[in-house]
Structures are given as structure tokens and as C-alpha cells.
């Protein structure tokens, strides 16, 4: 029942003696001192009803100084209470039984019963208890829902409060997270057809103004993730309400909101909310005292935020470096990746802390650090080597899939850690039967990308991988077959059965379908496989080469002007050809013609044509940093394959690491070229793991 405000003001401000005479006089005194009017008839009803509990006062009369509080009722409520008492069983409530004498109560029971009937909140306690039980029951049932349809069926049986609407929408999204794409489509179709879903959306629009910040953020996120149209009324309503209450959002709610906005297309309300979010973050920067709060704010602004705002957050983070814990340092990598902002100073500081505590970091945290470094194009050889050393020293505690994941990221980052790769190659050779097709393809990709084979077990390693790969040939997809054979070819290995299957006409036709999205990429890969079959394979093999067209796109024909200037200072003008494109689409930056002993440079082109057998062609290749392994001049797979093929065509190779070359002084550049051009012919780069 509702409590009358004036009655509370009256009856809570005086003490009452526990006998009838004192009760009556005190009530009159309270009426005289009441500042607000009160319905005397209502008070009379309450006063008369006290007779049913008078025995409580008599039992408590021996206690001096006992306090009692009273409440007043509206007339209708008092009548409802009286009728409810009359219909209830006497045996159920002995306190209201007027025909039987009450049993003796202990003092603790007397206090408990007195508190129950004299507390002005007592009549609201029972309904509140029932409501609480109902809420608990609803959320218990909600936790057990396994599909959107289950959630909607449950919501249809309860009153849709704003809190339940928010929780139902979030639960619907959570149930679809781990479903397959086909199952998601089917469940979403059922969800949109369910009548309660429309009620949820209607209630969300109606109660959006009452929702707390986290409920607003999670409701919007759930609707967007569930595929509700961004132009729908419910999404646009939530966007407008969030704009109005944005100043009330805490860090967690802002983070959820930012995650949601990243998945939304550009429109008037979404763009306005993004702008407001960035302004809010900018105003809160000086007040941030906690690293976690700072990182949350940094993630909120998104990748397309102004660089000036990113710089302010960077400076704030640098000023708080002394507060960074190990988890803060790890989390900073993913935070900067979420901003798409490469702060080398900040990342270097975090890297140092990670290196110092590398043994205390779990698997997925290390993966996130490497993935974020890849996304940010951040290269730290010391950090990556420390992680690789840790993985190698604890190799037995990692599964093959975990190590393959590490190697894949190291390959993307350009780190060629020979110790880890040799150790894992030995493990693969011993336990190759446990590898899946995906494992084999990823291992081949990593080793071919980094141009590495183990020194002592090269052939055993390749044979183990090829035997496992060929066991999957009956059910392999053409795209997987193409990738696997290409990686083998880059490594200088040509598994016969795999090549036979790839060269089947139906497989080639499927790979080269014009309307395929990967048509261009497949064409280029087949071209390189064809070159490997022509230039690398021994004459004893009998498999025909691929008769496919050359790739439509030609390589870049721009030469490095700094290397060109150094060559002219070293050899003179017009002694080398620039930008030579061979018939097989290999591009040579500079071609020099020398004598067989590489003692002098040919000055006349006609002399070369008449006496070719007496001269040596030298190919000067400018290698960008992306074509070399991190921190070394070891060529990656595609460059190594090109060098191998040019050697087979009769060229001597001079490799110039462009980035390091540009850092040299002019006289040092000339000396660098002289020592490599006027040198003894190097052995052919047929060995995959040979250093340059």
C-alpha cells in the first residue's frame, strides 16, 4: 500500500508510550503539531485498527523507552485492507484472530512481530518481495535462453519494462554470436517474424528517455549487430536520445557506444553522435587520472578521428607512463590499433615492459600484441625476437595450432627466427600425422614467405608436409590446392601428385573463371608456378607446364633515383640499362654487362651482341624493406624465387637493400656498389635458406 506523506510526517516525529492512554494523548499532540493537513477520518480508521494488535503493546509494556512508528492510509486502502483480513483464514494469521488467545511469544518474536506491524513500510514490504522474486525469476529464465526465439517467447510472458527490453535485446544478440552464418540468417528471420520483437522495438522507443546510459548503449549495439536497419525508427530514436544524454555516459558506456558507431554507416544522426563523442572525450582528457579510463577514451574516438585529438591523447598517455602496469602496456597495443595511430615512442615504452615480463603473459595477449603491431605497421625486432625466444623455450606447452598462429604473424611481420623455425620443423617431421590440411597450408605459407628451410632436415621436412598434403587431395578445394602447390614451388619442392591434380583441365578452368573474385590473383599464382616448372625443375620430370596467359597487371617499372645516381658515379654514364622487363614479366632495376670474370664493364652494346658468350650479365635489384626479413638482408620468398630464376637465366645478382642504402653517405654508396659489382661470381641462389 502507499504511505500517506502527511501521516508519515505526523507519526514519525513523536514517541508513543506503550499503553492506550498515552497512545491517545500522543496522537492528539501530534495532530496539533502537524504542519500539513491530514484526513481525520483516515487517521481514525488507523487508530481503530490498532485494537487488533493491542496485545502487542501489553506484552511490550514492561520495556521502557520502546519506540513505535505509525502510518496513515487512504480510506479506500483501509477498506481493502479490512476486506482482505476478513477473507483470510484465522489460522493463517493468529495476530488477527479475535476468537482465540494468542500463544505466548518470546521477546525476540515480540520485537519481530512488533516491527512487522508498526513499521510504516511494512505494507509495502510484501509486494516488493514478490516483485523482487518475479524479477529474479525472469532473469534466471533469460540466462537459460539459447536462441532469439526463446528470448522473445519469454519476453511475451512478462511486462516489458525498459530494463527488460535492454536485457532482452542484448541476450538476443549474445545467443547469435557463436552461430554459423546460415543459422544466424535463419534465426534472424524467425526473430523478425516474431510479434514480440516488434513490441520490444516499440517499447525501446517509448522508454528510451528513461534508460540508463549503459542500457541505451547496449540496446543500440544489439540492434545494430542483429542487422536492424540503421534507418529504422527504433535505431534513429536511440541515436537521438543518446545525443541528448551523452554527457551522462561513463567510460564503459562510451566504449560500447564507440564500438557500435564503428559498425554503422554514415548518416546525419550517427555522424552527429560521433562528433559529439569526440568533443566529449577531448573535454575529459585533462580530468583523466586512471590509465584504464584513458585507454577507454582512446578507443572511443575511432580511426577517423582528427590527428590533433589523437596527439592529445598520446601526450596524455606519455605523461602517465609511470603508472603503466603490464596489462596496461599490453592493452595499449590494441588501443592504438583501434585508433589506427602508430605512436612509436609509446609503443617502444610498452614493448620494454613486455620484454621484461614476457614469461607472465598468456597466449592470446601475445597474439594481440603481434596482431596490433601488424595492423599499425610497427616493427620492433627486439620485442618480436623476445616473443619468439619465449615460444621456442616453451615449445612443448604450445599446441601445433598455437605455434602455427605465432609463425603466421611472424611471417606477416617479417621476423625470421631460425631457432624457432628449425625446432618446430623438427617437431613437424616427427608428428606430421597430427597435422590438418589447414595446418599444412599455414606452415607452408610461413616457411615460404620467410624463405626458410631447416639446415639439417630440409628434405625430410618437405617430404613430411607433402605426404600429409597429398592425403587430402581427394577432398581438397581447388583454391587450397593452388595455394599449397604455390608454397611448395616457392620452397623449390614439386610434389608430383599435387601437380598432376592441379594441372587437370577442370581444376584450371574453375580457377580461371572470369567472374570469380579471385580470378586475377589465381592467374598470377599460376604464372609463378609455371615459371617454377620451367626454370627450377630438373629435366627428368615429365609433367607438362601450365599453358595459361600471363597476368594482366605488369610490375612497377620505376627505378630508385638514389641507386641510379650512385651507379653513375661508380661506373659512369650510359653503362647500365634501366628498368629492364624480361619476357617472363620479371623486372630488373639495372642491367650491367661485364666480362666473365667481372673485372670491367662493357661500354658498347654492339660488342655485347656479337660476343655474348664472353660476357656476364649482372642484375642490380633494389629491394624495399618489405621484401627483406626484419633486421636482415635475407630475401623473402617471392624475391628469393625471382633471384633463383634470374640465376637460372644466366644473370649474376647484386641485391641492394634500398632503405639501408639511402642512409649511407655518397662515397659509402659508391664503395658498396663496387664491392658487389666487381666481385667473384657468387654461387647460384638455389638454396632456400642461404643468406644474402
TrEMBL record:
The keyword Kinase applies. Keywords: Kinase, Mitochondrion, Transferase. It comes from the Eukaryota. Residues 74-112 are annotated as: Disordered. It is found in: Mitochondrion. PANTHER family: FAST KINASE DOMAIN-CONTAINING PROTEIN 2, MITOCHONDRIAL, FAST LEU-RICH DOMAIN-CONTAINING. This is FAST kinase domain-containing protein 2, mitochondrial. It comes from Acipenser oxyrinchus oxyrinchus.
Amino acid at each position: 500500500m502507499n504511505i500517506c506523506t502527511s501521516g508519515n510526517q505526523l507519526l514519525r516525529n513523536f514517541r508513543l508510550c506503550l499503553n492506550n492512554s498515552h497512545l491517545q494523548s500522543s496522537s492528539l499532540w501530534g495532530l496539533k503539531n502537524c504542519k500539513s493537513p491530514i484526513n481525520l477520518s483516515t487517521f481514525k480508521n488507523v487508530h481503530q485498527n490498532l485494537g487488533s494488535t493491542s496485545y502487542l503493546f501489553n506484552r511490550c509494556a514492561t520495556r521502557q523507552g520502546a519506540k513505535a512508528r505509525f502510518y496513515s492510509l487512504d480510506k479506500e486502502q483501509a477498506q481493502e485492507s479490512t476486506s482482505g483480513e476478513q477473507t483470510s483464514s484465522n489460522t493463517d494469521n493468529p495476530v488477527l484472530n479475535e476468537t482465540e488467545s494468542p500463544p505466548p511469544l518470546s521477546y525476540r518474536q515480540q520485537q519481530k512481530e512488533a516491527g512487522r506491524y508498526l513499521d510504516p513500510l511494512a505494507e509495502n514490504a510484501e509486494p516488493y518481495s514478490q516483485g523482487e522474486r518475479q524479477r529474479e525469476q525472469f532473469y534466471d529464465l533469460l540466462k537459460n535462453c539459447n536462441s532469439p526465439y526463446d528470448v522473445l517467447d519469454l519476453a511475451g510472458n512478462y511486462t516489458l519494462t525498459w530494463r527488460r527490453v535492454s536485457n532482452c535485446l542484448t541476450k538476443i544478440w549474445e545467443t547469435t554470436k557463436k552461430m554459423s552464418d546460415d543459422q544466424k540468417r535463419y534465426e534472424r528471420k524467425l526473430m523478425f517474424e516474431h510479434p514480440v520483437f516488434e513490441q520490444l522495438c516499440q517499447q525501446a522507443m517509448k522508454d528510451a528517455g528513461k534508460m540508463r546510459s549503459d542500457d541505451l548503449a547496449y540496446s543500440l549495439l544489439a540492434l545494430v549487430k542483429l542487422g536492424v536497419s540503421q534507418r529504422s525508427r527504433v535505431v534513429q530514436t536511440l541515436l537521438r536520445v543518446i545525443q541528448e544524454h551523452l554527457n551522462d555516459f561513463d567510460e564503459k558506456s562510451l566504449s560500447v557506444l564507440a564500438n557500435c558507431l564503428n559498425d554503422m554507416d554514415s548518416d546525419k544522426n550517427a555522424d552527429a553522435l560521433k562528433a559529439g563523442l569526440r568533443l566529449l572525450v577531448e573535454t575529459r582528457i585533462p580530468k583523466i587520472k586512471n590509465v584504464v579510463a584513458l585507454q577507454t577514451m582512446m578507443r572511443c574516438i575511432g580511426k577517423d578521428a582528427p590527428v590533433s585529438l589523437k596527439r592529445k591523447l598520446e601526450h596524455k598517455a606519455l605523461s602517465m607512463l609511470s603508472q603503466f602496469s603490464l596489462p596496461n602496456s599490453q592493452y595499449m597495443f590494441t588501443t592504438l590499433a583501434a585508433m589506427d595511430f602508430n605512436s612509436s615512442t609509446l609503443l617502444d615504452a610498452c614493448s620494454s615492459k613486455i620484454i621484461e615480463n614476457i614469461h607472465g603473459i598468456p597466449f592470446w595477449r601475445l597474439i594481440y600484441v603481434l596482431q596490433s603491431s601488424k595492423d599499425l605497421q610497427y616493427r620492433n625486432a627486439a620485442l618480436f625476437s623476445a616473443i619468439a625466444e619465449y615460444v621456442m623455450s616453451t615449445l612443448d606447452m604450445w599446441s601445433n595450432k598455437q605455434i602455427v598462429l605465432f609463425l603466421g604473424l611472424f611471417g606477416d611481420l617479417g621476423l625470421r627466427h631460425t631457432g624457432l623455425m628449425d625446432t618446430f620443423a623438427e617437431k613437424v617431421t616427427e608428428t606430421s600425422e597430427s597435422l590438418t590440411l589447414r595446418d599444412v597450408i599455414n606452415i607452408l605459407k610461413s616457411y615460404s614467405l620467410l624463405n626458410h628451410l631447416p639446415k639439417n632436415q630440409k628434405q625430410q621436412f618437405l617430404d613430411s608436409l607433402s605426404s600429409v598434403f597429398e592425403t587430402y587431395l581427394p577432398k581438397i578445394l581447388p583454391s587450397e590446392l593452388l595455394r599449397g602447390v604455390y608454397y611448395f614451388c616457392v620452397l623449390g619442392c614439386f610434389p608430383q601428385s599435387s601437380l598432376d591434380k592441379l594441372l587437370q583441365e577442370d581444376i584450371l578452368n574453375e580457377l580461371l573463371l572470369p567472374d570469380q573474385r579471385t580470378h586475377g590473383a589465381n592467374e598470377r599464382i599460376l604464372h609463378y608456378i609455371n615459371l617454377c616448372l620451367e626454370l627450377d625443375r630438373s629435366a627428368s620430370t615429365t609433367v607438362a607446364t601450365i599453358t595459361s596467359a600471363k597476368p594482366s597487371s605488369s610490375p612497377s617499372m620505376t627505378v630508385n633515383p638514389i641507386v641510379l645516381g650512385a651507379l653513375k658515379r661508380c661506373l659512369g654514364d650510359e653503362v647500365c640499362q634501366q628498368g629492364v622487363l624480361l619476357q617472363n614479366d620479371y623486372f630488373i632495376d639495372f642491367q650491367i654487362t661485364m666480362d666473365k670474370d667481372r673485372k670491367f664493364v662493357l661500354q658498347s652494346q654492339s660488342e655485347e651482341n656479337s660476343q655474348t658468350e664472353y660476357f656476364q650479365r649482372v642484375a642490380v635489384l633494389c629491394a624495399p624493406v618489405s621484401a627483406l626479413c626484419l633486421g636482415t638482408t635475407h630475401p623473402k620468398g617471392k624475391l628469393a624465387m625471382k633471384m633463383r630464376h634470374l640465376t637460372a637465366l644466366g644473370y649474376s645478382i647484386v641485391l641492394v637493400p634500398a632503405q639501408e642504402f639511402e642512409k649511407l653517405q655518397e662515397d659509402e654508396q659508391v664503395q658498396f656498389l663496387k664491392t658487389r659489382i666487381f666481385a667473384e661470381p657468387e654461387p647460384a641462389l638455389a638454396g632456400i635458406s642461404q643468406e644474402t
